[in-house]
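Encode chain A's predicted structure.
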Amino acid sequence: MRLLKNVFDFYLNSSIHVALSVYALTWITLMEYQIDYDESILYFNFFATITGYNFVKFFGLAKFHHRSLANWLKVIQVFSLICFLALCYYVFQLQIKTLLWIGAFGLVTFLYAIPFLPKHIIMDKQQNLRSISGLKIYVIALVWSGVTVFLPLLNNDFDIDANVVVTAVQRGLLVIVLMLPFEIRDMKYDSLKLATIPQQIGIKKTKVMGVVLLMVFFFLEYFKDEIRSYNLLALLIITAITLLFVVFSRENQGKYYSAFWVEGIPIVWLILLILLH
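Encoded structure for chain A:
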């Protein structure tokens, strides 16, 4: 049993779970626009997510404690290196225009973790985008939306039209809502300088905001030129599931409430679409 728990914790801590969510959202985009399974962009997004998230999460730890890293962190570093090499392989399978967009999103991820801002701008020792008051959740939403909507379409020569923009806005709204249980959970740990949404408006209003954003997320579907019944049904179910997780989130959550269940909602969405298609 302990071995299974260690494997499961590694699955979460090494960002495999979040990478599967990005993979799922990318595939959902391909399915929505009736594009064949694109192994190159799907696997690139999967390995890039693991590499990027582990870089952001463990950069500080590795920087200051590289001589005395815990064994689990060393394993994650080796795993991340392997994923980076896989990422490099799939880079060469992508189109040039896709790579240009990847460069832009990669730069945002890099600046999100690396100190580069003058201290007087943010008054915080971290000096990166992650530390700018109120910015974190929107940076994540922007990157996720771009990576899971625009990249797979660009790589398949699909025109970016009004429908795609609506999909990108929906995706960004969903990511913001999925982040709210994490921000509620971390209220007691986050620096007040981060100015997270729960810190600014309180937990109750944060939940109300999440419900409103979910309604917008769902009803934006009706602004698209073509509405498929199975897409709408899957969207309705996911909206309801996400709403419940937002409403019942609290500061003292179970260990896996956000890290596994909330983070896994995109995976459930993909499974629903496959079953309903």
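Residues 2-276 form one domain.
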